[in-house]
Amino acid sequence: IEQDKMAIYKYGYEILISNIINISVALIVGAIFSEFIESIIFLMVFAIMRKYCGGYHANTYLKCEIIFFLNTVCIMILAKTNIHLELMWLYAIYLFIIEKFAPIKNKYKPIDSKRKWLCKLYAIILCASFNVFSVLNYKKSNRYSMVVDLTLLSVVLSMIIQKILTGRRRQDET
Can you tell me the distance from the alpha carbon of 26 to that of 24, in angstroms, rounded to the nearest whole number? Predict the structure, then answer.
């Protein structure tokens, strides 16, 4: 491996290991709570939406893993309790926030204006699609709908948190 590409390979392996840990954590948490299908739904919605929306990025892998673990546990607990939460009314708010802020800028993954527009479009379409899935499955499986709704809420909150932190950093710099 050429010396100038070593950092790229190192970063790639770090991301690969982090993704393997996150997937394993979500599946193990799902198995512990007897919510394996729900954990797969969570992973799919979370990974897809974060890819196009962006959101909060912890400054260390350990913090990232802890936040992801807590996020997964909270969603699995709420899905397990089968509490009748009326989150469907939030869909319009999710779509508004995604349309307004997605994708959240990340200093490690700069994107050009065309790619930014495509990410925003994909995020809106995917969010709307997940919303439709949730509504259509609400009567059949409230838990699956709850996982989708809570995961979308988690992604949107992550976007808001990152936006607030980015704004604070800019204020601190001036």
Answer: 6
